[in-house]
Structures are given as C-alpha cells and as structure tokens.
Automatic annotation (TrEMBL):
It comes from Luteimonas cucumeris. InterPro entries: CHASE2. Keywords: Membrane, Transmembrane, Transmembrane helix. Pfam families: CHASE2. Residues 71-376 form the CHASE2 domain. The chain crosses the membrane at residues 43-63, 359-377, 397-427. This is CHASE2 domain-containing sensor protein. The keyword Lipid biosynthesis does not apply.
Length: 618
C-alpha cells in the first residue's frame, strides 16, 4: 500500500510538472501577443505618457465636476461604512430626550380598557402637561393632528389650550405638500407658521400648500416634519427649511433648537447631517411612565427616568406596528421621532457632522493624480513609489476616521483615492512595460539569439560620490544617479540592464548597492562596441544635461568588456569564445575602471590571443 501511494504521488508530481510547462509555454504566447506591441508603444511615447495621463485625468475631473459629479456620488455609501466602522461613537449630550409612544405604553392603556391606538386628544394633552410639570424646556410633538376628533371635542380644546399655553415651547407637526398643490392653496407665506424671509426684504408672497394641525394654536405653533431621502433611499441629511420663493418654512428640529437657545446661523443651512449613532442612543422615556406620574410601567423597576428639566423632548410613536420607520446609515428601520431627535441633538449640542465642499474632493484627486504622474515621470523606483502611495492612503484613511470620530468632520477621501488608484495602476502598468523591456524580458522584446548576435559587450557602472560630501548628501546623490540612469534605460535604448542582483533591503545592500551592469549585443566585435559607445555617450549627456550636474558631486565609473559567446559546440576548448557567465564574472571582478565621459572610446579591438579582452582602457 505504501509503495502504491508513493508511485501515485510521483505520478501526480510529474503530471503537474508537465502541465505547468505546457500552460506556461502557451500562456507566454498570450502575454507576448499584447506585451510586445505595448513595448513598442512605450518606445514611441517614452515618458510623455505620464503627463498625457495626468492631463486626461484632470480633464475628466473637470468635466465630471461640471456635469454628473459621479465622483461625489460615491460619498454617501462610503459615509455609511465609515460611520458604522469607526472605533468610538460619540456619547449623546443628554440635552435631547425621546418620549416614545411604544408598544408597552399602548398595551398599558389597552389593558386598562381605555383603548389602544390612536390615543384620544386628552391623553396627548395629559402627556404635555406631565412634561411641563417636569420642567421640560421645549417639546416637539411628532404626531399629526389633522382633523378635530368627533368623539372628543373637549380633548381637542384641551390640547389646543396646551398649545396656547406652551407658546413657542410646544411645537407640533405639520407637513409641506407637493409644490403642484401651491397654485390652489389659500395660505400665503407671510401667514404660514414658522415662515421666515431668506431674502430681505422679500420680493414675493407666494402661495404654499401645507397640512396643518386642526386647532388655531396648534397650527400657529407647528413646524415641518418632512424628510428627504438620498437617491439610494437612505436618509442621511435632515432638512432644516423648505424654500418657497424668497421665503422658507422652518422644520421642527430647527424650531426646537431656536426655542432651546441654540446658536443657529441666519439664514439657517438647508439641512443638517446628524452624528448618527448605532449603539449610544439618545435618552428615552416611555409615555406611560410619564402619564402614570413617573411609575415604572415600561422601564425596569430599579432604573430612573432621564432628567427632564431644561431639556428638549421629542414625542412620537416608536411602536413597530405604526409604520413610521426611516432607513438611516446606522439603522434601516429607525423610528421617525428618533430621526428628528438626532437632528435636534445635532443643532442643540453642536454635534452635526461637518463636511467640506464637494470641490475639495476633486481638488484632492487632481493633486494626487499630478503627484503620482510626476513621480513616475521622474523615474522614481517603483518600490519607493508603491510605499509612498500605500503610506499616503493609510494616512488619509486614518485622517478620515479620526476626523469623523473625534471632530465630527467627515472628509470623503475614499472616492478620490479610488480614482487616483486607477491612475496609479495605469502608471504602474506602463512603468512595468518600460522595466520589462529594459531588463530584457522576452515578453517585451525578442529573445537573444547567439547565432544572429554572437558578440556581447558588458559595462559595469557605479557612482562614486565626492569624498567631501557628508554621508547624507552622498546617499542622496547616489540615489539621484540611479534615478537618472533608470529613466534613461526606461526611455528606450539598445542596452539591457542587469539590476536588482541584490535586493534593496538585503543585508548585502550596503556593499553592492551600486551594482549595475548593462549588456549590448552585436553581430561582430566592432558592432557591439559601436552600439555600447553610442549608448554610453548618450547616458553621459543624460546624466549631465540638467541644472544639477552629477559631475559636480561625483563621477560615474565604467568597466567595459566584450566577447563572443560560447555556442556550446566547443565545450572542451575555450578558444576565442567565453561563456556568458565568464564574461559577466570578468566584468564584475576586474578592478580597472574609467570615468564616464562625453566620448567613451575606451574599447580595445585587439583582444589578444587568449580571447579575453581586458577591462576598458583609454
């Protein structure tokens, strides 16, 4: 049995090895089918691609800002995630209390034979009286009393009298009807409850269609409870006013905040975004507990009711069967009275979430795109650009969470980063094509054929900083040399670079960090020398044609060797041919080297009888 298992494993291993070879050979054909055309494209565009991409990206941002603003449309969904994922939620100020007509309160009076929902007007008046006796500062009643009760005229009168006595401290719900009904409305803005002029002096007095409470004083002390959902159906921002011509109608949270003495700018903002909480709810008290003089009807026997003196109370039903649920970022079925209470809390406690203007998001995206394109255009090492990009994303992500958690400030950097990541990916792909061709990857350029190009020339390059430079300056100049060299090779030349023999963070990096070998191929010795000299001359010009010349802070040393490559037909005799590994070893080991110059004529054509050309000499 053991032998069978062993043979089976051998067979599986061999089958996988064969399958891997077949797959990679065929997949290489697929990759070369598109990578080699892209490589030829990079030879034409060179580094112009990056400014072109930056211009296209910034142009799209400008177009999107003036049209659909799709970059800003992502913000709502991202806000919902961040507000739920933040590590801490702000505690409520305690200045706003929700008085809930819950299942327990309705069941309590039903059990006493006094009817279920809807309650009579007298009971609502008694609830207001209980709040008034508790020293409440202001009350917003999120129950719409549209018509007088035919069975309880005395209760209607009592409730209207409570509205008169409470004056602006007691506010009741009204509804703004659709604008299509304004034309036939009898009410004008100058007489509408809670109306104020946005333009002073107002130039018009338009008609307005509203559904007001039945009583004179109830209607006079009413405010809007309309809410507006976002396009995805989630309610994130609560309206503070409804504009009609040069006028506006105040919402219930706005009126309550003014009654509570909160500082509200004039004219008030169109909406407010509460600091939505999922776990730390506003203080709640059941209506039955208040109506029964504070007895523990719906709360735990040992718990205390929230203090009411000087507070702002929102009264409304939270019973699930009454169908007043609103989808919010933290609760898909949040009762409407809690929504209004959160908006009131945001105004009274000053905890509203502040958001920067939308144009700042586009400005950030544009700046990051330009910075990304500039980094790739300069020829910065891809691993360094990757690290900077990741660090920048993490920093902005941290700033977004910290701002929302501790400062009630939400800056949606996520849509900007998503757009920049797309541009970064394109830059990274283009740089990968440039690098693939520069290092001689067969997916990007034709494989080396020793029969067509039997001669190879190799150059070992290293930068020697001026001894007068300190360690930091020398390190900076060496990095600048490698950046310019990389940019020269990525732009396209005949050389193939052998780079990264020692990884940047390897323990040998400090010893071999200047390792760079360039290889040229030629049909004969003179051809290989001419091609190498042409590229080295161009490299010198590239390294020194900028304002900050490398020659002033150091020199580039070169060691060049050339030989015909062994074709495998004379393994036993070295003759005039050297194997590639021997040529590479000679180039790396030879101590002789010469400074790179404008005309690099340090090639010997007389290789000698041994066929081992010495290092570059002049």
């Amino acid at each position: 049995m053991k032998r069978v298992r062993h043979l089976l494993l051998i067979w599986i291993d061999a089958a996988m090895a064969r399958s891997a070879i077949v797959f990679m050979d065929n997949w290489s054909r697929v990759e070369r089918a598109y990578r080699r055309p892209l490589s030829r494209l990079t030879l034409r565009l060179k580094f112009v691609f990056y400014p072109l991409l930056a211009c296209a990206a910034v142009g799209w941002l400008a177009w999107d800002w003036s049209h659909e603003r799709s970059l800003g449309a992502v913000e709502d969904a991202i806000f919902d995630k961040v507000v739920r994922w933040r590590p801490w939620q702000p505690a409520p100020s305690g200045r706003v209390v929700v008085v809930e007509i819950d299942e327990c309160s309705i069941a309590h009076f039903r059990s006493r034979g006094e009817g279920g929902w809807p309650w009579n007007r007298q009971r609502h008046a008694d609830l207001l009286d209980a709040l008034d006796r508790g020293g409440i500062g202001a009350v917003g009643y999120d129950v719409l009393f549209v018509d007088p009760s035919p069975d309880d005229p005395q209760g209607d009168a009592t409730l209207d009298a409570m509205a008169e006595g409470g004056a602006s401290r007691f506010m009741f719900a009204s509804i703004r009807l659709h604008r299509d009904y304004d034309e036939g409305a009898l009410l004008h803005m100058v007489d509408a409850p809670g109306a104020f002029a946005v333009v002073r002096p107002p130039r018009d007095n338009p008609q307005v269609a509203m559904q007001l409470p039945y009583g004179k004083h109830l209607a006079r002390h009413s405010a809007l409870v309309n809410v507006t959902r976002n396009e995805d159906g989630v309610l994130r921002d609560i309206p503070l006013r409804e504009d009609v011509g040069d006028w506006a109608l105040a919402s219930l949270p706005l009126q309550l905040a003014i009654a509570a003495g909160a500082h509200v700018r004039q004219p008030p903002a169109a909406s407010v975004r509460p600091n939505w909480r999922r776990d730390s709810r506003l203080p709640h008290v059941s209506a039955a507990d208040l109506l029964e003089g504070g007895s523990a009807i719906c709360r735990d026997a040992g718990s205390k009711m929230p203090a009411l003196r000087g507070k702002v109370a929102l009264v409304g039903y939270t019973a699930s069967g009454l169908n007043d649920a609103k989808p919010t970022p933290v609760d898909p079925v949040m009762p409407g009275v809690e929504v209004l209470a959160e908006a009131t809390e945001a105004l009274v406690a000053g905890s509203a979430i502040r958001m920067p203007p939308t144009w700042l998001k586009y400005l950030l995206a544009g700046a990051l795109v330009l910075l990304t394109a500039f980094a790739f255009w300069r020829g910065e090492p891809h691993e360094d650009v990757d690290s900077v990009f990741v660090a920048t994303n993490l920093l902005l992500l941290l700033a977004a969470f910290v701002g929302l958690t501790f400062f009630a400030f939400f800056f949606d950097i996520f849509a900007s980063l998503a757009f920049v990541s797309l541009c970064f990916g394109l830059c990274r792909m283009y740089a990968g094509i440039q690098r693939g061709r520069a290092i001689g990857n067969a997916d990007y350029r034709v494989e080396y054929d020793a029969n067509r190009h039997p001669w190879l020339a190799m150059a070992r390059l290293r930068f020697v900083p001026d001894p007068a430079l300190d360690a930091k300056a020398a390190k900076r100049r060496r990095r600048e040399y490698r950046r310019r060299l990389r940019r020269f090779l990525y732009a396209g030349c005949d050389a193939v670079m052998i780079e990264g023999v020692v990884e940047r963070k390897s323990w040998l990096h400090d010893i071999l960090d200047d390792l760079m070998v360039l290889v040229w191929k030629g049909s004969d010795q003179a051809d290989a020398h001419a091609i190498a000299q042409r590229d080295l001359d161009a490299l010198y010009q590239h390294l020194n044609d900028q304002d900050d010349r490398l020659d002033t802070d150091g020199s580039v040393r070169v060691c060049v060797v050339a030989a015909a490559i062994d074709d495998g037909r004379d393994d036993s005799q070295r003759g005039e041919r050297l194997r590639l590994r021997e040529l590479l070893g000679q180039d790396l080991n030879d101590p002789a080297e010469w400074p790179l110059s404008a005309s690099n004529t340090f090639f010997r054509t007389d290789a000698g009888s041994t066929g081992e050309p010495p290092c570059a000499t002049s």
